[in-house]
From TrEMBL:
InterPro entries: BP-dep_ABC_trans_perm (IPR050901), MetI-like (IPR000515), MetI-like_sf (IPR035906). One of its GO terms (cellular component) is plasma membrane. This is Carbohydrate ABC transporter permease. Belongs to the binding-protein-dependent transport system permease family. MalFG subfamily. The lineage of its organism: Archaea, Methanobacteriati, Methanobacteriota, Stenosarchaea group, Halobacteria. Keywords: Cell membrane, Membrane, Sugar transport, Transmembrane, Transmembrane helix, Transport. It comes from Haloplanus litoreus. Coiled coil: none annotated. The keyword ATP-binding does not apply. PROSITE patterns: ABC_TM1. The chain crosses the membrane at residues 27-47, 92-113, 125-148, 160-180, 201-224, 257-279.
Length: 294
């Protein structure tokens, strides 16, 4: 039995209507596309994890081994006992600090713009806010570098947080504006009539209602800060260096420690995967709450 005939029989078993040859080819095409997409997406992840448990010599063998012949955790030990531990700590400090500051500034700004669109910046403010986020990060690097070097703030945590705020705050304002616009203003007015002040209505009514959106925005901002490379490469040396900068340094001219590169990459992926899984329900709710509305 051919693949087309098998597909037609399978589909015919789930419906009373005859399945056309076109429908069978459509199923085969969609299945093939999804399979190729999954392999293309998941194979690099598998290969990274696979390489991270190999000794250095095995990573250079040809043909490559699809499972470690000699299983070892020494790449993880070498990374965590070497420079990897400090750059991961720096990444945590910078990314968490930049995310908290962006949310503290951006959430109230997004609320103010959603509730008073005519009074805050005019009708074109939303476009200008978003345009800052679309601006290529490489463009302002040179003037910013000279400015921070002039005041002696190269290779410091506050510098990295301020740089990330430049691109994070517009994103937070844009997204939170959409989330707050989905909350009827009558809900806040009812709370005020019940005796709440404007500030109490914001904290006790509006914020809980948009909590899925806050979780989604926080995660997006944190991922950007966690993985950012260009600013970290230019504005850090040793004290505030983050993990995306240290990974290329493991690729040397004479020898490349691919197992340590893979181990550090796996360690860096773990927080994103864990947080995304733990916050999955809120993340989905936030993405469907209206974050993509203009």
């Amino acid at each position: 039995m051919s693949v087309v005939e098998w597909t037609r029989h399978r589909l015919a078993g789930t419906t009373d209507e005859p399945v056309s040859l076109r429908g069978a080819f459509r199923v085969i095409g969609v299945t093939s596309f999804v399979s190729i997409a999954l392999v293309t997406t998941l194979f690099p992840l598998y290969w990274t994890v696979n390489t991270s448990f190999k000794p250095a010599a095995e990573t250079q063998t040809f043909p490559p081994t699809f499972t470690p012949e000699t299983f070892t955790v020494s790449p993880y030990v070498d990374v965590l006992t070497g420079a990897g531990s400090s750059v991961l700590a720096n990444s945590v400090i910078v990314s968490v600090g930049a995310t908290v500051l962006a949310m503290v500034i951006g959430v109230p700004a997004g609320y103010a713009y959603a509730r008073n669109p005519g009074k805050v910046g005019g009708k074109h403010l939303a476009f200008w806010i978003l345009s800052l986020r679309m601006f290529p990060p490489i463009a302002p690097i040179l003037p910013l570098f000279f400015m921070f070097r002039q005041v002696g703030m190269i290779d410091t945590y506050p510098t990295m947080m301020l740089l990330y705020l430049t691109f994070n705050v517009p994103l937070v304002v844009w997204l939170m504006r959409s989330f707050f616009q989905d909350i009827p203003q009558a809900v806040e007015e009812a709370a005020i009539m019940d005796g709440y002040s404007r500030l109490e209505a914001f904290f006790k009514v509006s914020l809980p209602l948009v909590s899925p959106g806050i979780v989604t925005t926080t995660l997006l901002v944190w991922i950007f800060s966690w993985n950012e490379f260009q600013f970290a490469l230019v504005f850090t040396r040793n004290a505030a260096q983050t993990y995306p900068v240290i990974i290329p340094s493991l690729v040397g001219g004479h020898a490349t420690l691919w197992n340590q590169v893979a181990a550090l990459s796996v360690i860096a992926m773990i927080p994103i995967i864990v947080i995304s899984l733990l916050m999955q329900k809120r993340l989905v709710r936030g993405l469907t709450l209206g974050a993509v509305k203009g």
